[in-house]
Write a structure and sequence with these properties.
Blueprint lengths: L4 E2 L9 E8 L2 H10 L3 H6 L3 H15 L7 E8 L3 E2 L30
């Protein structure tokens, strides 16, 4: 059994979400990385030499000219669907098992 089913209707919603972020320079990007929850934690357990080498490699790849702004982009593919009523505590689709009670959030696995 699938954990979700495609939305009913003639044209399912399958948008592509694209985002861009521009950093003023490499130091701006690096400080953001250091403060991030996943990359920052990974770098925290690396030796100073490993972090230094990683920083050099990243800067060489993203900013070979060694100055100026850096723009990064990312893309996600989304799909809209519904979660079968078996996944809901009340069997009606109003209260997902994981505790999300907002009926507008159906099909979004919050804290799952």
């Amino acid at each position: 059994m699938k954990p979700w089913a495609p939305s009913a209707g003639p044209s399912p919603c399958r948008p592509v979400i694209t985002v861009e972020r521009t950093y003023s320079d490499f130091d701006d990007l690096w400080n953001t990385i250091l403060g991030g929850p996943s990359a920052g934690q990974a770098l925290a357990v690396m030796s100073e030499e490993e972090v230094s080498r990683f920083r050099e490699v990243l800067q060489d790849r993203l900013q070979p000219a060694a100055s100026g702004p850096i723009t990064l982009s990312g893309r996600a593919h989304a799909i809209r669907g519904t979660v079968p009523s078996l996944c809901f505590a009340d069997g009606e689709g109003d209260a997902p098992v994981w505790g999300q009670s907002d009926p507008q959030a159906r099909g979004v696995a919050v804290n799952a």
